[in-house]
Each structure stands twice: as structure tokens, then as C-alpha cells.
């Protein structure tokens, strides 16, 4: 059983560019959540996907979008990058449709460190 | 005011000390998580609890739903416990809301 993996580990972009980050879920998990963690802060919820459908969204603009594939891997896309988008982007997978079950544990990937210059 | 508040923000302890990190929240929740984040970013889930108390090795987590408060205790602390400890709550909006973390440094 493999854990949650993310790629790339580090990425440098310039303002205005677009970026795609990838996440492979833990085997058997059908739910993926994405988080943005600025330096010195706790993670902020971006959105969650369950069985290829968006299942909840945090307070992020539409230029943050995502996809979940039939194998439950996921992508986070950010368009028109801004300097404030520089952060660690974490994905977490879980087994649980709504994520509301108290038995639902999220397993985090190692993160992608995005720097926007 | 943040929905999830942790204290202290930074904590330095000597090896062997008993450590307590506190988390207060202001919203109704279905569960509370304690997470550990090491330098480089990787996050490990330590506990998920919705009532009472859980213990795993030297770690103990408690929650008081009425008071909207949780604590994470580390007994016989060790330098390898040095990390950022994050409290996160699962609310009705189907999302985790995180505290800003407590940076723990345990000195040998």
C-alpha cells in the first residue's frame, strides 16, 4: 500500500504564469482535499473532491481549480499566479464520502513548495 | 478572531519535561485532529477525536466539547518530538479549519 505522493516537490514560477500540481491518493481512498499553507501559518482549505466531483470549497478565487481522475488521483491548477500564491500546497486523501465521519482520517502528502517570483 | 486558536505559539522544553499544547475553537465540530508537521512540510495525523481522551505512546489528547477546548500532552519529551503541532477542526462546512500551529523545540 503506497502513501500519498505529490509532484513536483518544488516549483518556481513567475507572476501571471499557470501551474499544475499533482497528487496521488493512498490506495483505496476516494476523497482528496487540497490545502495552501503560507509560511508560518496553518493550512487553509482550498477544495475537496469525492469521486471526481467537487465536494466543498474554501475561500479561494476561481483561478484555483481542480480535477479528480477515475483512479482518484488529483490535480490542482492555479492560473494567473500572484506573489501571494507562494506557499506549500498539501493534498490529503481519505476514505469517506463526505469527510464528516469522525472515523475519517486524512493522510497528507509531503507537499509541493511553490515560489512565485 | 480565528475560529481555531492554539497556545502557546512557541514552546521550548528540556528533554524529559511534560508538555501541554492547547487548542480552543469557536464553532460546532464533528471531530478534532491533532497533526504533527516536521521541517520540510510533511504532516502526520496524530489523533482524531470527538469526545473524551485518546492515548498513543507518550502522546495523550483530550477534548471537552462543552468548553470547546482540546489539549495535546507529551510525556517524557524527547528532542525528536520537536516539530510544529497543529490542531484542526472538522465543522459543518465539510472542511478542516486549522490553527496556526505550535512550534515545539525539545532541547537535549
Summary of the model, kept short:
With 117 residues, chain A is mainly beta.
Write up what this structure looks like.
The complex is a heterodimer of chains A (about 120) and B (about 110). Chain A has about 120 residues and is an all-beta fold. Chain A has strands at about 5, 10-15, 20-25, 30-35, 45-50, 55, 65-70, 75-80, 85-95, 105-110, 110-115. Chain A is built from no helices and 11 strands. In chain A, the strands form 2 sheets. In chain A, strands 2, 4, 5, 6, 9, 10 and 11 form a 7-stranded mixed β-sheet that branches. In chain B, strands 2, 4, 5, 9, 10 and 11 form a 6-stranded mixed β-sheet that branches. In chain B, strands 1-3-8-7-6 form a 5-stranded antiparallel β-sheet, with no helix packed on it. Chain B has no helices and 11 strands. The radius of gyration of chain B is 13 Å and the shape is globular. Helices cover about 0% and strands about 60% of the residues of chain B. In chain B, a hairpin with a 5-residue loop joins β4 and β5. The interface of A and B includes residues 45, 92, 99, 102 and 113 of A.
Shape of chain B: globular
Kindly report the oligomeric state of this protein: heterodimer
Major protein interface: A-B, 31 and 26 residues
Poorly predicted spans of chain B: none
Number of helices of chain A: 0
Order of helices and strands of chain B: EEEEEEEEEEE
Amino acid at each position: 500500500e503506497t502513501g500519498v505522493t505529490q509532484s513536483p516537490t518544488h516549483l518556481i514560477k513567475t507572476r501571471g504564469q499557470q501551474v499544475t500540481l499533482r497528487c496521488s491518493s493512498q490506495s483505496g481512498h476516494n476523497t482528496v482535499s487540497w490545502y495552501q499553507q503560507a509560511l508560518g501559518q496553518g493550512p487553509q482549505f482550498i477544495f475537496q473532491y469525492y469521486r471526481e466531483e467537487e465536494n466543498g470549497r474554501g475561500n479561494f478565487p476561481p483561478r484555483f481549480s481542480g480535477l479528480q481522475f477515475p483512479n482518484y488521483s488529483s490535480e490542482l491548477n492555479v492560473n494567473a499566479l500572484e506573489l501571494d500564491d507562494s506557499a506549500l500546497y498539501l493534498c490529503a486523501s481519505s476514505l469517506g464520502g463526505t469527510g464528516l465521519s469522525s472515523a475519517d482520517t486524512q493522510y497528507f502528502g509531503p507537499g509541493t513548495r511553490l515560489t512565485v517570483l | 478572531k480565528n475560529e481555531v486558536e492554539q497556545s502557546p505559539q512557541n514552546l521550548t522544553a528540556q528533554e524529559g519535561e511534560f508538555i501541554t499544547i492547547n487548542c480552543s475553537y469557536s464553532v460546532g465540530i464533528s471531530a478534532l485532529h491533532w497533526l504533527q508537521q516536521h521541517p520540510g512540510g510533511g504532516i502526520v495525523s496524530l489523533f482524531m477525536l470527538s469526545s473524551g481522551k485518546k492515548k498513543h505512546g507518550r502522546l495523550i489528547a483530550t477534548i471537552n466539547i462543552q468548553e470547546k477546548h482540546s489539549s495535546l500532552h507529551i510525556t517524557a519529551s524527547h528532542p525528536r518530538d520537536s516539530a510544529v503541532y497543529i490542531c484542526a477542526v472538522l465543522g459543518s462546512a465539510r472542511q478542516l479549519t486549522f490553527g496556526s500551529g505550535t512550534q515545539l523545540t525539545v532541547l537535549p
